């Protein structure tokens, strides 16, 4: 008899497994349908010996010292600030758009103050910002929207930005200075020996057992357990009772080259050309010294493993119906990107898992046998 069955060995499941095993001294079984732990953050040494990410680049960044300190129990860190270039009009320019981006693209010599006015002259008036298109054209105008956002978004989501919630493009800032870092968080680091090693340490406890290549539907009635933490797709948990929640997927083409470097930064985006959205080169991220290099081409897809919830109002309405079912399901906690149908960064998932553990502690004093009505982890929980 396990005290907990945890579905998914990614950030949500692994953080909670470690907390429950060490802080509550309870027995945990973690299952995952894949053949590895660490979820989409899984990294590995390929045949050439290059440390690479099977599911595309994962760069850790956070403003939360609590989250950073928590993960620091399981890894040392390598300082790394991610930089991205975009191939626009045949040249590479910084993304997010900054002072150097505009000056290089238009052969100008604007100052930061002049760039603010330059943006203002091109910005379109939008009475109410509802869509991703509204966000961009109201800040920088239609020409930069077409160059940087529209094509990339249509490839990534299979939808025009005018059809997507404003949250999609609101994630990417526009700067008037020369800061070319993709993220500006206080803590920007990579696990020194990789994500997989960090997860191994997190799950290395006698109270934790791990079963890979195991589907929840196949074992939920076979393995005795008292409670469940579920980080898979919420619609799948309920056998798609109200229909499937839409997700976007990705296909990855990994290529190892007989050269030391391929590109000047970790990621180059292709908003206007190519079928793929971006190329990433892992040695920039890991700092590995190797005579060869491995790169990954990313191709968005409608079919495949679910990666990104599609942010449209009707999809949120469908999720709310599943969320109502989840809240009425006893002894099951729903945690993670797929179970809460929101796009969260890695640090946000860790925060959500830690907040869920605090709620578990409040609802179930250690060793208690009382039932608990499940609660879908909310975005408010992350802020706490």
Automatic annotation (TrEMBL):
Matches recorded under Pfam families: GLF (PF03275), NAD_binding_8 (PF13450)
Stretches assigned to the UDP-galactopyranose mutase C-terminal domain: 147-343
InterPro entries in the cross-refs: UDP-GALP_mutase (IPR004379), UDP-GalPyranose_mutase_C (IPR015899)
The enzyme's E.C. designation: 5.4.99.9
Assigned keywords, A-Z: FAD, Flavoprotein, Isomerase
Cofactor: FAD
Coiled-coil region: none
Annotated GO MF terms: flavin adenine dinucleotide binding; UDP-galactopyranose mutase activity
GO cellular component: cytosol
EC class: isomerase
Homology family: Belongs to the UDP-galactopyranose/dTDP-fucopyranose mutase family.
Listed name of the protein: UDP-galactopyranose mutase
Record organism: Salinarimonas soli
